[in-house]
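Entry: Peptidyl-prolyl cis-trans isomerase
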Amino acid sequence: MRKLPKSACLSLCATLGLSLFFAGCAKKEKQLHATIDTSMGQIVIRLLEKDAPKTVENFIGLADGTRLLEEGEDVANAKPFYDGLTFHRVIPDFMIQGGDPAGNGSGGPGYTFEDETYTEGEPVTGEIGDQQRAEYVFEQWVVPHLREHRGKSPVEFIANLFGKMQEAQGFEPMYEVEVEEIASALEIEEPLVGRGELINSVDYGTLCMANAGPNTNGSQFFIVTKEGGTPWLNGKHTVFGVVLSGMEVAEAISQVPTGPQNMPEEPVIINSIRVSEVKVKVEDKEKTES
């Protein structure tokens, strides 16, 4: 066997030594993991608190019961919100949905909060001009107003505008309207900020908020079981977690026999949801590249 020169041996030893040193210096990252214990097994999910901080905070607060405590109320009185609820809607090759205290898709915690689907964009001002901007303004400002008043606006400007849109069966009547006119009619003082970039796609194995439209998040959530994900839902639902283990459980739940409204014939129970902070080894990219 050919012997390496002494200089080459020293170089090799140094390289190996550095490699071992860097391998032993792997960073540890703190992550939030949620364990959903169901009557069919456990699903462990990494929560994406950096991408969806408000949503994760809400989920944790409901899971441990502190979210619904009155101000000053003793934490000892907290009752975990999700314990004993069900996966009330399951569809094969699509998703499993749970977290509804009513058990039929109509319930929630008694409040709603905004989506965390896009990064912050530029302020929307001036003439609306096209369908994309019209849809956004309508979705963010007009829809919540109409929902509050059961579809009939008491504001003349909005009522007339909505009537023209219904007649035209489209958004064209909004094109020549200015954003500021709608803000004034609805007495909205804060500027409307447009969408930036999509934060996360609704992919296979993601944990997402269910809703009744823009900014109507509450307690209901779903886990995607469709291979390839559901890109048509991108931007419509906040993605706030990804399954680490137990996808076989989620898929099994999606396959149970169902009745009307995709409700399982035999209830699939959420025994508990518990969140813990764990330290996970992650690769130090800077040292790896060097």
